[in-house]
Amino acid sequence: MQNQHKCHVLLVCKARHERAAELGEEIGAWLKTQGHQADVVEAGQASSFYAADDLDFVVVLGGDGTMLGVARRLVGRNVPVLGINFGRVGFLTDAQPENWREKLEECLQGQERVRSCMALRWFLTRNGRALAEGAAINDVVVSRGSLSRLVCLDIWADGQRMGSLRSDGVILCTPVGSSGYSVSAGGALLYPSMDAIGFTPVCPFLNTISPMVFPGNTDIQLQVLRGSTDCYLTVDGQEGQKLEKGDMLRVSGWSGAVQFLGEGASFFERLRSRGFVLQGSAGSCVGENQ
């Protein structure tokens, strides 16, 4: 994205969101008047535009959920994503609707920083045969079904057996995804630029295994054991599949697989503004006895 370069930009609008769709069309028209190629699609719809060889970057008009769905389509493509926030939290988005033009101009001129983050690859086998595979930006979760009964899993890390776990489930997350389900279940909050995998058991029976953090290149395997109730595989809280006894799930890190445009607020400012860290002015914490 150098100066004077004519860019191909894909605009993805939050599904069934009138204002996001209107702004998407407005941005698309503006890009064309600047000599760039622009295509507009609604999130969740199949489109050949995602696979275009000349795609320079993608602008997502939506919240974190829309960002995750688009980022999974682009994983490993080296196509950066800029988020314009139309959601509630907006942890992954770097621009607001009112300043879209300023952000777009910086992106088109190559002035916006590109942040590379890791993703997760997952592979599911059943009876020794490949059943499904994919990528996750936030997390891969194995959890129980509707009945309040435990999931029983055997767990390996890089071929070494960790042990068996009885719990409500297990969360494997990226650093970007650690601020979601994982931290709510007691997992560590990881700095986004790390290459690491968060491992967080959900309500483990007798606290068998504590939350852990593994290097990003660790190969983690989970096998569903006898005695498990109905359990499910969920990817980024958006894609799901029912698991059967004996199923083997393999998860590993994918370094630099997804790219985001824009630096925006610092990581800690994002945490403060979204309620993860208590607000307070510097030096305002005073001991009770002072």
UniProtKB/TrEMBL annotation:
Its EC number is 2.7.1.23. GO terms for biological process: NAD+ metabolic process; NADP+ biosynthetic process. InterPro entries: ATP-NAD_kinase_N, ATP-NAD_kinase_PpnK-typ_C, NAD/diacylglycerol_kinase_sf, NADK. Gene3D superfamilies: Probable inorganic polyphosphate/atp-NAD kinase, domain 1, Probable inorganic polyphosphate/atp-NAD kinase, domain 2. The keyword Mitochondrion does not apply. NAD(+) binds at residues 64-65, 138-139, 149, 166, 168, 176, 179-184, 238. Signal peptide: none annotated. It catalyses: NAD(+) + ATP = ADP + NADP(+) + H(+). Its main location: cytoplasm. One of its GO terms (cellular component) is cytoplasm. Keywords: ATP-binding, Cytoplasm, Kinase, NAD, NADP, Nucleotide-binding, Transferase. GO terms for molecular function: ATP binding; metal ion binding; NAD binding; NAD+ kinase activity. The active site is at D64 (proton acceptor). It is found in: Cytoplasm. SUPFAM superfamilies: NAD kinase/diacylglycerol kinase-like. HAMAP family: NAD_kinase (MF_00361). Involved in the regulation of the intracellular balance of NAD and NADP, and is a key enzyme in the biosynthesis of NADP. Catalyzes specifically the phosphorylation on 2'-hydroxyl of the adenosine moiety of NAD to yield NADP. Belongs to the NAD kinase family. This is NAD kinase.
